[in-house]
Design a protein that fits this description.
alpha+beta; Uridine Diphospho-n-acetylenolpyruvylglucosamine Reductase, domain 1; 2 domains; 3-stranded antiparallel β-sheet
Length: 179
C-alpha cells in the first residue's frame, strides 16, 4: 500500500520500522502524470505540450531546486507538514474569512489546503528562532541554521501548528516521523 506521501509504514505499521533502503521495480511503459499544478506551469513555460518522462523529470528537478534548500548546505527534512484535508463545511468557514486560501478538491469530496500558504499567511515564511527556521523560499520546509536540537525543531513546529490553528481553525499535522 503506497501512494503519494502515504504508505503502510505511516499507517498500520507506523513506528514499527525504520526504512534504510528501498528497491523499485519500474514499468517499461511510463505513466506520465503532470496533474501537480507546478509541473503543469513549468511545462507550459517551456512550451511542452506532450511531455516525455525526461521533460517531467527535468521540470520536477527545477521546481525542487527553486523551492527546497540543498541538504548538503543546510539541514532540512523537506516538507515538514502535510497539506490538511478538511470537510467542505469546514472549508466554507475558512474561505469566508480567507477568500484567497489555496485549495484543491480531493477524490473523496473533501478539500485539501496548501499548508505552505497557511504557514506563510501566519508570517512564518523565512522566520528564524534560535537556530531553527522556515526556508526563505518555502514556508513548508523547516531548516536547521546551525546546531538546533530535535527539541528546538519540534517546539518551533508546535508554534507554527498553534499559529495556523488560531488563524484558520485548521490543525496541521507533521509529515516527518519524530523518533
Amino acid at each position: 500500500h503506497f501512494g503519494y506521501r502515504e504508505s503502510i509504514f505511516k499507517g498500520n505499521l507506523k513506528g514499527q520500522f525504520i526504512i534504510t533502503s528501498v528497491t523499485f521495480r519500474l514499468s517499461v511503459q511510463p505513466k506520465i502524470n503532470t496533474s501537480y499544478g507546478a509541473i503543469e506551469v513549468e511545462l507550459q513555460k517551456r512550451a511542452i505540450e506532450n511531455p516525455t518522462i525526461a521533460d517531467v523529470s527535468s521540470a520536477v528537478s527545477h521546481i525542487r531546486v527553486s523551492k527546497l534548500p540543498d541538504p548538503s548546505t543546510i539541514g532540512n527534512a523537506g516538507s515538514f507538514f502535510k497539506n490538511p484535508v478538511i470537510e467542505k463545511y469546514e472549508f466554507a468557514d475558512v474561505v469566508a474569512k480567507h477568500p484567497d486560501v489555496v485549495h484543491y478538491p480531493t477524490p473523496d469530496d473533501k478539500i485539501k489546503l496548501a499548508a505552505g500558504w497557511l504557514i506563510e499567511q501566519c508570517g512564518w515564511k523565512g522566520k528564524v528562532v534560535g537556530q531553527t527556521g522556515t526556508w526563505k523560499n518555502q514556508a513548508l520546509v523547516l531548516v536547521n541554521h546551525g546546531n538546533a536540537t530535535g527539541s528546538e525543531v519540534y517546539n518551533f513546529s508546535a508554534q507554527i501548528i498553534d499559529s495556523v490553528k488560531s488563524t484558520f481553525g485548521v490543525t496541521l499535522e507533521r509529515e516527518v516521523n519524530i523518533l
